[in-house]
């Protein structure tokens, strides 16, 4: 897999193509620079490199990006959980902002639903590590992942790609573009992506972990190339009709005695209503106008919408022990303006950003085996309106020394309307249930909160020669607070003792505070050995406060067993680590004419530790930091890619082999020996033949060739020690269930071995 280093198979670039002299040009700071010049930790993957590696979706790049986790969220196929340098957000329900920003053609995706983007028609994918916000878009506290589609060529172009592989994988992508006139071009891509399941749902008969996706993009471009103005209008559509992803039980059914299944991709969950369906679409218009040689104006306007229906069977058994039919409805509009300046020793930008987003989450929590027909229905509508001004400028103090200063002022307003109603006799009417309302709503909350913050950034860069760059930077990250959409207002403490829970007491109980991070980084980038070795190294330290940690636990509501949302603001966490990325061209003097041997590698180390984590235990605030872990953040990540290219006839044959490693991962803050994944390695290999002029290519790709079995996420509702988090065992030798008598301890797994052949034809 390619990284942000030069001269490796399918040269990875952060913006477009490498220059003729082999120097890669990037625009991570919104201006063209060589990769060595950029004082930012950024990894980038070109579309060509992703094609050579047989990459399937955006989560694949995490294998070779230091200190980065990208994965499908638990019982979903297309909701993304993203973590960079220990900062992220695992909970996909409305009310919780992402810690890592996901961008599609410079448009920030406000919600993680439909964000597991399939790789087709892609120009590049960039991963920026550390707080972002002074250069573009939404402020993000952990980093950003940018998915950029291709600009249209000036000439007619038609590309067709077909793939067939194990598990009856059958994909087809057609991309076409054509000039309408000297100034206007139109184009688009259509993708059909299918695969049988890795396992089976033994109750419903449906394939488990299958894929059934239609996708398409259309583009209209006016101007550009030699013209000073480029208008790019794009639309995209995705329809995912894949089956629900069922979890694998790690313990027997504690009431039914149902045994643990042999195949981790098999499941027994009986919930299939509503049928799983994900539909996402959007429109965007990006305008760039070069007013003078020094000043450029840019505008990005976008509207997006996605609807998701998903049945999540937590207990993974036929009985309704803990079943959660859910729906997510998201819509957003955004507008961004930038003024870019580049003249003499001063360059930079001034920008404005606005986002208006609505996120509605609705779900039943059905525990019929506990109390027949008992359901807790939640309808949480959380609206976000945010706007910001930002600036970032660099001044060259000399030919070798430059100083960058930036800042952002952000205003966030969160409006929450949360209803929670219990039903008896069946599920809620919204999900087609026959339940009858029981008692008054346990949450009936309507409130708002405002958050604002100035977040600065500064860096200094010293380049003793054009091939070497030493830099140091500081940036502050910020993420606004909000309201827990699963919180139970009826359980709010009566602080004034008047016997009534006031609106203010409920608001205080449901709310959580903003989180902040102070991030420091030192780094080096260099082209060594006459361009045969590229090295990028960074060391970082982050002081992270008020960390937002959402979750849910078993509880009692109006005398009935149920579940309650809980959100902790862990007082303080400390992260520090190292990252190294390198690429070398090996043995050039020993290779035959036209042959090329390359070795690319990445390594990441992070020490992520809570310093203060206060929780309420028996009415007493208790610091449990010594017994909590940072989720989805392995201490060590690493990869190595060996590439060999040789002429075959008039074409080229390219072979790459990648091994990637991740050390132990904790799925939640409380360690869980059943769900946590020990360190493991994956091995991929690719063999691709490209005809002269790249007219056609055919490749054989193998992913996870040693068929490693590894957990990526899970659900748990079993008893734990409130301080240490230890899991006590009952008389039967298994964990004690806290919600549902069968016990919920289910896991989801990464893809097994896949082998597929891809053929591409270009006209």
Automatic annotation (TrEMBL):
<keyword id="KW-0812">Transmembrane</keyword>
<dbReference type="InterPro" id="IPR036942">
    <property type="entry name" value="Beta-barrel_TonB_sf"/>
</dbReference>
<keyword id="KW-0472">Membrane</keyword>
<keyword id="KW-0998">Cell outer membrane</keyword>
<keyword id="KW-0408">Iron</keyword>
<feature type="domain" description="TonB-dependent receptor-like beta-barrel">
    <location>
        <begin position="236"/>
        <end position="705"/>
    </location>
</feature>
<dbReference type="Pfam" id="PF00593">
    <property type="entry name" value="TonB_dep_Rec_b-barrel"/>
</dbReference>
<comment type="similarity">
    <text>Belongs to the TonB-dependent receptor family.</text>
</comment>
<keyword id="KW-1134">Transmembrane beta strand</keyword>
<feature type="domain" description="TonB-dependent receptor plug">
    <location>
        <begin position="36"/>
        <end position="144"/>
    </location>
</feature>
<keyword id="KW-0798">TonB box</keyword>
<keyword id="KW-0410">Iron transport</keyword>
<keyword id="KW-0813">Transport</keyword>
<dbReference type="Pfam" id="PF07715">
    <property type="entry name" value="Plug"/>
</dbReference>
<dbReference type="InterPro" id="IPR010917">
    <property type="entry name" value="TonB_rcpt_CS"/>
</dbReference>
<dbReference type="InterPro" id="IPR039426">
    <property type="entry name" value="TonB-dep_rcpt-like"/>
</dbReference>
<protein>
    <submittedName>
        <fullName>TonB-dependent receptor</fullName>
    </submittedName>
</protein>
<dbReference type="InterPro" id="IPR000531">
    <property type="entry name" value="Beta-barrel_TonB"/>
</dbReference>
<keyword id="KW-0406">Ion transport</keyword>
<dbReference type="InterPro" id="IPR012910">
    <property type="entry name" value="Plug_dom"/>
</dbReference>
<feature type="short sequence motif" description="TonB C-terminal box">
    <location>
        <begin position="746"/>
        <end position="763"/>
    </location>
</feature>
<keyword id="KW-0675">Receptor</keyword>
<keyword id="KW-0732">Signal</keyword>
